[in-house]
Amino acid sequence: MRDQLSLLTMRLPVLLAALVAVAACTETFVGHQVLRVVPQSDEELQKVQELQDLEHLQLDFWLAPRRLGLPVDIHVPFPSLQAVKAHLEAGGVSYSIMIEDVQALLDEEQTEMLRSSRQLPLSTETFNYEAYHTIDEIYNFMDMLVAENPNLVSKLEIGRSTENRPLYVLKFSTGGTNRPAVWIDTGIHSREWVTQASGVWFAKKIVQDHANNEGVASILETMDIFLEIVTNPDGFAFTHTKNRLWRKTRSKHSGSICVGVDPNRNWDAGFGEAGASGNPCTETYHGPYPNSEPEVKSIVDFVKSHGNIKAFVSIHSYSQLLLYPYGYTSAPAPDQQELHEVSAKAVAALSSLYGTKYKYGSIITTIYRASGGTIDWTYNQGIKYSFTFELRDTGRYGFLLPAKQIVPTAQETWLGLKVIMEHARDNLY
Amino acid sequence: MPGLRASPPAFLLLLVLVFPRGSPAAPGAGQELEPGSRSAVAAARVALHYGNFQARSLGGLRALGQVRKATLKNIPESGHKYYLQFSTEDYRTGEDAGNCLATVLYPKKKSPPVVSIKCSHTKDKKEIQEEDNRFYQRIRHQSKPITGNNIPDSYGNIEPALEPVWALAVAGSSSIMWEKSTETLGYFLAQVKSVRQWVRKDDFTEFDYTVLLHEIPTQEIISCHMRLTWLPGHPLKVKHFCASNADEGSGAESGSAAGPSAEKGAKF
To answer: Which terminus in chain A has less CB density within 10 A, N or C?
Structure first.
């Protein structure tokens, strides 16, 4: 038993690295167990107390050793399991496994909590816009919206994700044939939950405005609106089930154990240049080649075949910024001045509602150099009014924005979007 | 009748000529920066990380408001030094918390930024002390050691019972974020993944944390383990160990042969 532990000390650097690798790659508690010991003798109690002194085992005593006959609960990280059990067994101390896998229990709890608090809404009137939703709930919302407004809204499937989830786009149109159009996408980075939630709100808002003949009703007289709410469904599902802070797609490309490509570095604009990473294990991995990701390719194909999109807005969080091209080069976009002016107006409109402060400018000067980005590609395709929003907040909650901020965020953002849409409508090219 | 005063735009033009932007700061001369510029904002954030850690208080934690003024000097042999004036908000409530003056020196060699910071208060010292004592009492009067996971949770919620523990995490991780910050790398606290209290015989509170930091511009989520001790009025003691990303996928060759170099980090 002593030998086991000194062997452990020798293998410490390897174990630490393993723990670090586990923590870095996946959830913190996968494979962790909680053991229960009820010491019946002084010798047994001592054996358990010895474990407390071994800091490198990273044990965490949910119930610390106190007296004989009282339970001791030990949360043991996966890499230390073998050593701890060996130590106890060698000392003749019996133990039981209270929790086989701590992470599995946490996940289960989470799912249960959610399931019990959810009831399927019967219409888009009873849908809860002030809460975050799962993919199924959002897809259900879309079907309800179409069913309630068949003359205005239709649902298009523009492709399938890596994990074969449908990529849905809502089309809002009052008629015509291939009218000039506005494109809005949310959720391309799956962890930016306020964006998908805002997309749902936008969809309902468009329908309401049309019904009341106000707001964007006038835009819909001459233009169509396309809205992709869950632009990265595989990533989004992953943020609900495994890792709330997942950003990328869920594709696996040969030669790496790491998963996922940054869908906002995968477009064919400065692809692979400075401002993206060639390492598949990083968050800004650009992918093996442009449009390698079906989530990106489907939009590229859609935009090209439509041929008449006049404004393209891709929505992210967080930072409170309104951005226009370019990100991959410091050369100013030819329409820089006009885009800057439109941005100023859009930001003023946004701020007018709740005083939320936004900054604006080109991607490269305002946020950082980024290559292979969405709106750099759409701009180079000739879609002059190409913008990216970074929604609330500025870092206090970051990606984990409280649900009560969803509607205020969507409301203010909508005012900014309307400025862009109206400008496009009044300045068709 | 038009006056003879120089019109505002002309005056601004004069300023621009005197303080040229876009040219590298000459040694000794200060270059005025756009207060909203990302390097000014990033430097202000670093100053606040340092301030939040040094303040040794939870009631006085601040978030960045707006940068009002920013100047950059190149100190030969030393590094880039930012002179900043910015407003702040109470971290919890968002209310105005007063203004700060700060300097941030990013050293040429790899070491933490050198920060000096002085702030005005909208809350008086007594109020902050009382808030700290209240936090302290809430922590001490638990019947069993505090544990928690995912603070805030996926939906942005923080259980009221865990608020003091979250505030402590903000203060403690500020020290980590300050230390790691460079002129090109910045940090935000993304989430407290787990927290566990160590019961002590003395008056100090002690916690083990796993915190997730959001790194800009790489977008990486860095997992850090933090051991923290606190007693109101005493300096916060923080020991930390952050996972390095180099471990992820090590040994696996990247399949991408695109581009002349194998790996280009997001950089500017």
So the answer is: C
Q: Do residues A417 and A184 touch, judged by C-beta distance below 8 A?
A: yes
- The topology under which CATH files domain B8-119 is Nuclear Transport Factor 2; Chain: A, (3.10.450)
Q: With respect to residue A17, please indicate whether it lies within any of the assigned structural domains.
A: no
Whether residues A152 and A96 share a domain: the answer is: no
CA atoms of B21 and B32, how far apart (whole Å): 7
Which of B218, B223, B255 has the CB atom closest to A282's CB atom? B218
Least confident of A64-78, A209-223, A299-313, B177-191: A64-78
Strand partners, B207: B197, B228
Domain spans of chain B, in order of start: 8-119, 128-264
Cβ atoms within 10 A of the Cβ of A160, count?
Answer: 14
**What angle separates helix B163-180 from helix B125-140, to the nearest 10 degrees?**
110
A214 an active-site residue? no
- In chain A, the residue whose alpha carbon lies closest to the alpha carbon of B199 is A64
Residues of A in contact with B36 (CB under 8 A): 359
- Going by the DSSP 8-state scheme, the letter that residue A32 receives in this structure is -
State pTM to two decimals: 0.77
Say if residue A20's pLDDT is above 80.
no
Chain B residues touching residue A372 (CB < 8 angstroms): none
Confidence tier at A221 by pLDDT (50, 70, 90): very high
Nearest to B243 among A23, A245, A403 (CB): A23
Number of domains in chain A: 2
pLDDT tens-place string over residues B112-144? 999 999 999 888 888 899 999 999 998 888 889
Among all residues of chain A, which has the CA nearest to that of B265? A277
Q: A146 pLDDT exceeds 70? A: yes
- Are residues B247 and A21, on separate chains, in Cβ contact within 8 Å? yes
